[in-house]
Design brief:
The complex is a heterodimer of chains A (281) and B (489).
Chain A (H helix, E strand, L loop, with lengths): L25 E5 L5 E6 L3 H20 L2 H17 L1 H10 L4 H21 L3 H5 L1 E2 L6 E9 L2 E6 L4 H14 L3 E7 L3 H12 L8 E6 L1 H10 L5 E5 L3 H11 L5 E5 L9 H4 L2 E9 L2
Parallel strand pairs in A: 5-6, 5-8, 6-7, 8-9
Antiparallel strand pairs in A: 1-2, 3-4, 4-10
Chain B lengths: L24 E2 L1 E3 L2 E3 L6 E5 L6 E6 L3 H16 L1 H4 L2 H17 L1 H12 L3 H20 L20 E2 L2 E5 L5 H14 L3 E5 L6 H12 L7 E3 L4 H9 L5 E5 L2 H10 L6 E5 L5 E4 L5 H13 L11 E5 H15 L20 H16 L3 E3 L15 E4 L6 H4 L6 E7 L2 H9 L6 E5 L3 H10 L4 E4 L18 E2 L12 E2 L3
Parallel strand pairs in B: 1-5, 7-8, 7-10, 8-9, 10-11, 12-13, 12-17, 13-16, 15-16, 17-18
Antiparallel strand pairs in B: 2-3, 4-5, 6-20, 11-19, 14-15
Classes of the chains: A alpha/beta (281), B alpha/beta (489).
């Protein structure tokens, strides 16, 4: 008699824990043949609001962590992802990717983490300035993290889409809520396990899966979310995030998932320039 | 010693207005020409210090704004883009030089139309305006050095296009300079709408731009009220919006550009905490507090409008502050002795009065010095609000007048918590003689500009702009170039 496979239960990742949706709702994710891959959690508005609370709790500590430590943690993420390469390839294949694409997807994702790990203690130097003011003052400007950044992903995301959007946000000292459509729920939750075992403090990265309309309006209108990256070319979605986000002057950035340019500018999208003056003499 | 409190008898020292030649009527500056508004609509601009009508200004309609955007587009696609960065810079240098030459004229006009003390317009606003053009002039041919990595893969740094700019009435010419100089340096063209109560210096600037020989359509000035601003922001052929003004209007603008490709920068309101630690140099701190809140009648988005004093020195600071406030002279903006000029408009005066009334209703104590305040014109005395709680309306809402709320705290952490307990995050002040404490506070207060042992210092080389609901983007300095360029990196 052949052995029965033990299937994994995919839940949410909030504040360093893996709870089910408070709503109890799930969604059957099917493979190409129509077989159930998993019953993934469908996050609710309330899950989203609870997650913002957990994220805010984590933010000050993460912002205060040293740049060196942030770099080490991002590099650790790369190590853990590399170590679980085979598993990610298999999950990506289940989600409809070819073997060849899946391998490339994982490798690109690992490399993106290594790339951003290296920026942790460098982008500040490149984008700050000592300003030559004409009065007897010492005056300098430096980037500081915006705070809580929601990342909205769409059906094109894949593992690389999620990782390459998350990395610049957190390496800059922000905490994030990744809002992932059901299509990539298993991939995102496997990634959550990688995050959980990489010394990323609980609450710095949170993963919510389900239907975007259940989550995005609440995220966009939330007064304690400072910024949102909309990684989708859906114009209606983009417009609604900006409209709802206006209420607390959210920084809303549009990204195209298909473009994979690695650059420090995505880090700078979620930095605020702070200028400090002090008299000399 | 001279008795400043009781012997306050300064002889009047009025600045002459002979240097300005205010026309009876001003048109719109569109495509290098002065034109009437379509339909010939105009509105009056008054001197807020004496309510006298200074001139009539064209009220730009949707069709006028459309003509201005078309002129800006034509210039952007045509002559302006064919000019090298170095040549663009030379136009800006010319503007800076003419502004320096005509600075007194600008200063007097600014004080007449807006109500700010001549000492400020003469010594702060206009010199900063000229310096701002001079600063950005030098960037025009050096943009490839400004953005690390922008040239990777042969990418070019490009201007955004036609920029729609809407500015407020508190620093009329300075805001125009902050908007126009970086836009032109980066190769954009501009449609600028000044505030309806302070159009005159922007129109005089248009004359300077004309005198400098800037090609037609590069800078267009359309005057009018909120509707004209909406037309500028909402015009489909505007690529970028730059707005300075209230957070409320800023949010409307964000919603209105939500479904478009327009980029935007917003400089919005503030409610800055001005924190005095018990180890601060108290006399200097008191001067800093006065400069922080009474500069420009408190019509300053980054004004230090919430005083947070450490408990041990609170009584001493308040007593010294009150004594100092007794010496402040409120009156004719054109008098060189004036410290606090005219409130910019009747509406603003009514708003200040109503907010101070709210403070009394909510249980706070209002204190004003015995200073005489002119009966005619829009004037308001410097005001302290004591016994405030964090939840009081006057602690949470921007007053935009010479009104300072006072709260106390015990520890650095409490000061940080109170400072950050607001929707705003534009600026903040810290007074302490301990470096470590200064940096703990400047690091932890969530604001774009932190002044330590100083306040309200400005420089073209220093970026300005806020966190949270105080806005998006920076103006001034290297960082002020980013909103006006595009590149793929």
């Amino acid at each position: 008699m052949s052995r029965l496979k033990v299937k994994k239960t995919y839940k949410l990742y909030i504040g360093g824990k893996f709870p089910r949706s408070e709503s109890g709702r799930t969604h059957a994710l099917l493979d190409k043949k129509g077989d159930v891959i998993a019953n993934i959690a469908k996050a609710s508005k309330k899950d989203l609001r609870n997650t913002v609370v957990a994220t805010r709790k984590a933010q000050a500590g993460w912002q205060g962590a040293s740049p060196h430590l942030k770099g080490q943690i991002l590099y650790r993420l790369a190590e853990m992802l590399e170590g679980r390469k085979a598993q990610f390839i298999s999950v990506l294949k289940e989600s409809g990717m070819s073997e060849k694409s899946a391998i490339k997807e994982v490798e690109k994702s690992v490399d993106a983490l290594v790339y951003y790990a290296g920026w942790s203690d460098k982008f500040q130097a490149i984008y700050s300035s000592v300003n030559p003011v004409s009065s007897p003052h010492y005056n300098f400007s430096a980037p500081v993290p915006t705070g809580i950044v929601g990342v909205v992903l769409d059906d094109k995301a894949g593992l690389y889409g999620i990782v390459s959007q998350m990395a610049p946000v957190i390496v800059g000292g922000n905490s994030t809520l990744l809002v992932v459509p059901s299509k990539w729920a298993t991939v995102a939750m496997e990634l959550a396990e990688v995050i959980h075992t990489s010394d990323v403090p609980g609450g710095v990265v949170n993963v919510l899966t389900g239907e975007l309309p259940d989550m995005v309006p609440t995220l966009s209108g939330h007064m304690d979310v400072n910024a949102v990256a909309v990684c989708s070319s859906d114009n209606e979605l983009r417009k609604s995030v900006r409209e709802l986000g206006a209420e607390n002057v959210k920084r809303v950035v549009f990204r195209d998932n298909s473009k994979g340019n690695l650059s420090p500018y995505p880090i700078m999208d979620f930095q605020e320039i702070k200028t400090t003056w002090h008299p000399v003499g | 010693m001279y008795d400043f409190i009781n012997g306050n008898e300064y002889a009047p020292a009025p600045e002459s207005t002979a240097i300005v030649n205010i026309k009876k009527k001003y048109g719109l500056y569109i495509g290098g020409k002065w034109v009437d508004a379509q339909g010939k609509k105009t509105f009056e601009t008054i001197n807020p210090a004496n309510q006298q009508v200074l001139s009539k200004v064209a009220d730009a309609s949707k069709a006028d704004v459309d003509a201005a955007v078309k002129a800006a587009r034509k210039a952007f696609e045509g002559e302006w883009s064919s000019i090298s960065g170095a040549e663009r810079g030379k136009y800006l240098y010319r503007i800076a030089r003419i502004l320096q030459e005509r600075s007194r004229e600008f200063a007097v006009l600014e004080s007449m139309d807006g109500g700010k003390p001549i000492r400020e317009s003469r010594d702060i606003d206009i010199p900063l305006v000229a310096a701002h053009f001079f600063y950005y002039a030098g960037w025009a041919d050096k943009l490839d050095f400004a953005f690390p990595g922008a040239g990777i893969g042969g990418q070019k740094v490009k201007p955004v296009g036609v920029v729609g700019q809407v500015i407020p009435w508190n620093f009329p010419l300075m805001m125009a300079a902050w908007k126009i100089a970086p836009a032109l340096a980066s190769g954009n063209t501009v449609v600028l709408k000044p505030a309806e109560t302070t159009s005159l210096t922007a129109l005089l600037l248009a004359e300077v731009i004309e005198e400098a020989g800037v090609p037609a359509g590069v800078v267009n000035i359309v005057t009018g009220a909120g509707d004209t601003g909406k037309f500028v922001v909402g015009h489909p052929d505007v690529n970028k919006v730059a707005f300075t003004g209230s957070t409320c209007v800023g949010k409307h603008i964000l919603k209105s550009v939500a479904g478009t490709d327009k980029s935007y920068t917003l400089e919005l309101g503030g409610k800055a905490a001005h924190i005095i630690m018990d180890d601060a140099a108290i006399d200097q701190a008191v001067e800093g507090i006065v400069n922080g809140i009474f500069f420009n009648q408190g019509h300053v988005c980054c004004a230090g409008s919430r005083l947070l004093v450490q408990e041990g020195v609170a009584d001493k600071v308040v007593k010294k502050l009150q004594k100092r406030m007794e010496t402040l002279i409120v009156g004719n903006p054109l008098d060189k002795n004036t410290d606090i000029g005219a409130i910019n408009s009747k509406e603003q005066l009514a708003k200040i009065k109503s907010l101070v009334k709210t403070a009394t209703k909510e249980g706070a104590t209002v204190w004003q010095p015995g200073t005489s305040v002119p009966r005619k014109g829009n004037f308001y005395p410097p005001t302290l609000i004591l016994d405030c709680a964090q939840s009081h309306t006057v602690v949470q809402e921007e007053i935009f007048g010479p009104v300072l709320t006072i709260q106390t705290f015990r520890t650095v952490n409490e000061a940080v918590e109170k400072a950050n307990n607001t929707q705003y995050g534009l600026s903040g002040g810290v007074w302490s003689d301990k470096g470590a404490k200064v940096f703990k506070l400047t690091d932890n207060v969530k604001a774009g500009i932190m002044w330590a042992n100083t306040y309200n210092a400005f420089d073209p080389a220093s970026p300005f702009g806020g966190f949270k609901e105080s806005g998006i983007g920076r103006e001034g300095g290297l960082h002020g170039l980013y909103p006006y360029v595009k590149f793929n990196a």
